[in-house]
Design brief:
Length: 253
């Protein structure tokens, strides 16, 4: 019987990985967890639906004491909040590029903010949203735009923590046939040379453990919709999206 010579394999422990390998490993783990989101949220929503049905059934009892009725009302509110949170999580976990939907800009931003509520609360940071205009609806690839807003918010949360700020201001405004999100940058104005490169892939000024892809992905999403993402020293990060999704060649904003 002929023996087969096989080359020895070398396994590296995490401490032997270089920084890039560790980042890829972290991304792989996050990707695997992300693939579970759709399944988990579906099951959680089924559980929430059952809780809602039982709570509403109990509330139909005419002899239910007032305090018990109030508590059932709180249960219903909590279930609705949980269902909204699951919907927001499902949205960002869904594959982008598979369709368009008409959404309200304020609702889209509210869902994104909800996903970072715990980190905002832990850091004692409040998000203040001002909305101008009455026609802030737009047609978008919802998962992609939700992620773009999430990247901008996450970026500003880190900057706020480093600067010791407790407030992030976001403006939703109109410009001709476009909707504009302005995420105020509360820190020092960014250097001109940084403004030129911070939208490039893999650029980061935040040290190891960062991929430098958030702003790049956010701008790519904006351009794919026929809009843009830019940094303005006075207004902060300005995400502009047309009301109707159009190819970048038809940009009008």
């Amino acid at each position: 019987m002929q023996e087969t010579n096989t080359a020895p394999t070398t396994e590296l422990s995490p401490c032997e990985f270089d920084d890039k390998s560790l980042q890829l490993l972290k991304a792989f783990r996050a990707g695997q967890a992300g693939q579970c989101v759709a399944s988990v949220t579906h099951d959680v929503n089924n559980c929430l639906g059952a809780i809602m049905a039982y709570a509403e059934l109990v509330a139909l009892d005419e002899n239910l004491p007032g305090e018990s009725r109030r508590m059932m009302g709180e249960v219903v509110k909590a279930v609705r909040k949980g269902s909204t949170l699951m919907g927001a999580l499902t949205s960002i976990a869904s594959d982008s590029g598979k369709g368009r939907s008409v959404v309200f800009a304020s609702a889209l931003l509210a869902h994104v903010t909800m996903l970072r509520r715990h980190s905002l609360k832990t850091a004692n940071i409040h998000v203040e949203v001002e909305e101008r205009g009455v026609q802030n609806s737009l047609e978008v690839d919802e998962p992609a735009v939700s992620l773009a807003l999430l990247y901008l918010l996450a970026n500003e949360i880190e900057d706020a923590q480093q600067a010791g700020r407790t407030r992030i201001d976001i403006l939703i405004d109109e410009r001709e046939d476009c909707v504009v999100f302005e995420v105020a940058h509360g820190g020092p104005s960014l250097a001109v040379d940084r403004c030129d490169v911070m939208f490039e892939p893999f650029y980061t000024s935040k040290g190891a453990g960062r991929f430098g892809l958030g702003l790049y992905e956010a701008r790519t999403t904006a351009e794919r919709h026929g809009g843009d993402l830019e940094y303005d020293a006075e207004r902060g990060f300005v995400l502009t999206l047309p009301r109707e999704m159009r190819p970048p060649s038809e940009e009008t904003c």
